[in-house]
Amino acid sequence: MPKEVKYPANNPSSPEKELLGKLLFYDPILSGNKDISCASCHHPSTGYAEFLDISIGTNGHGLGSERAFGTPNDIPLGKRNAPTVINSAFNGMDTYGVYDPEKAPMFWDDRVQSLENQALEPIKTLEEMRGNTHGDTEILEVVVDRLRQIPEYQKLFKEAFGNSEAITAENLGRAIASFERTLVTNNSRFDEYMRGDETAIYASEKEGFELFKKVGCATCHNGPMFSDYKPHVLGVPKNSKLKLIDKGVGDTFAFRTPTLRNLRYTAPYMHNGSIKTLKQVMEFYEDIASGKVRNPEVAPERYDPLVREIKLSVKDMSQIISFMNTLNDPSFDKEIPRSVPSGLPVGGAIQ
Question: In angstroms, rounded to a whole number, what is the distance separating the alpha carbons of residues 62 and 220?
């Protein structure tokens, strides 16, 4: 992994932006009902992801596996598993370490580019942060107006962006993105090994890395982020909690290849959290490579051709998983603000 992060030309980094972005990340003032923050589903205690298979947004309470809807409730579940924010600064990176932060693909379906644009989407989404008290076309204006009424945010935005009229939706996205680009883990044991330290990983883990490449995992999970950032059709099992099946990119059942970094902190896996362990993920790939149907909505002939090239056996699985564990790096920011400028509970209704 690179040791330095790139920033968009229109959003250079500064300590003031990063501080402001962190406070906004934890402040439920950004949600329609003032009850949920970005950190509600992307909390440092769960690797800036969460332990739930699919997310419970507004009108929820509790954190991680303890999170549940309040009653009464008319908010639907989220459709997808909350991916980690860690290393999202590097989204879109190719095998040569090249990427453009202004064109970085976001979400499971790559529907938005750049962290700046991604940061605003949950605020506009009913089942995530917006709720049903405001429309999707008005919520950003509502949130910006709230921020303008808070003296501390007036001061922080001015310090971050240099003028007294700095509280805008665009700068809101820029500040959150600036904080998210500080959430980087680029010194895993595997990174140390790739930089020349032969002792950083064990012999069995090196063998697992060779098997990872040999059986075909690296065809899609490649580059420093172990993702080609392209959508693939796999026929992932359905999540029984969802009434309507998620058909992915253009109703093709394709979803983006996720990163393999920090998997220790980001279970359960796949776009809908339907697979709980890495061993079960391995077994899933063994099944679909042989043409087995794990989702009746997706016939084997629709599977990505790359899947058929996977040659994975049971005896390979433990060594490959052992290798993937070398990609874990616990050295991310776990410090939580003691308070946020709105005076609301830090993180929202997560206690």
Answer: 35
d(CA 78, CA 70): 15
Query: pTM for the complete prediction?
Result: 0.96
Q: Residue 320: helix, strand or coil by DSSP?
A: helix
CA distances from 79 to 53, 186, 241 (A): 10, 30, 9
Q: 35, 45 in Cβ contact below 8 A?
A: no
Q: What is the pLDDT of residue 65?
A: 87
Taking 90 as the threshold, does the pLDDT of residue 153 lie above it? yes
For 175-231, what is each residue's pLDDT tens digit?
999 999 999 999 999 999 999 999 999 999 999 999 999 999 999 999 999 999 999
Assign residue 336 a region: left if phi > 0, alpha if psi is -120 to 50, beta otherwise?
beta
What is residue 254's three-state secondary structure?
strand
The string of DSSP codes covering 39-66 is: HHHSBGGGTTB-SSSS---TTEESSGGG
How far are the Cα atoms of 170, 179, 216, 258, 320 from residue 262, in angstroms, in the given order? 30, 19, 21, 11, 15
66: how many CB neighbours lie within 10 A of its CB? Answer: 11
Rounded CA-CA distance 211/215 in Å is: 6
Compute the half-sphere exposure of residue 100: CA atoms within 13 Å on the CB side of its CA: 4
Q: Is 22 left (phi over 0), alpha (psi -120 to 50) or beta?
A: alpha
pLDDT in tens, 69-118: 999 999 999 999 999 999 999 999 999 999 999 999 999 999 999 999 99
Distance CA 299, CA 127 (A): 30
| Pairing outcome for strands 60-61 and 254-256 | unpaired
